[in-house]
């Protein structure tokens, strides 16, 4: 039972790391491309949202839901000042938990 429990959490964290990495890269790409394509703020946000959805649609239904959620979180976090140190600490905790659970 414990073996399957550890396997589940290892797969969960591996999936989490892959999704976060893909989501961040897709978000940067979507925001960059929308800034190149459109000049106005509201049309740029609309284009960015559609590009987020397009990148999420690559991963089927759950990817689309994750992309919409990622877009909303990205916009909410854009209004709050977050330093790189906080981001590095948060990602380090995720990786540390993964390394601990893999053993």
Kindly list the characteristics that best describe this protein:
single chain; 103 residues; mainly alpha; 4 helices; 88% helix
Class of secondary structure makeup? mainly alpha
- Tell me the β content: under 5%
**Average pLDDT for all residues:** 82
Approximate helicity band = over 70%
**Rg, nearest Å:** 16 Å
Number of strands: 0
List SSEs in N-to-C order: HHHH
Provide an overview of this structure.
The chain is built from 4 helices and no strands. It has about 100 residues and is mainly alpha-helical. The chain has one domain. The mean pLDDT is about 80.
Describe, in short, the structure shown.
With 103 residues, the protein is an all-alpha fold.
Outline the fold blueprint.
Elements: H1 2-37, H2 41-57, H3 60-78, H4 84-102
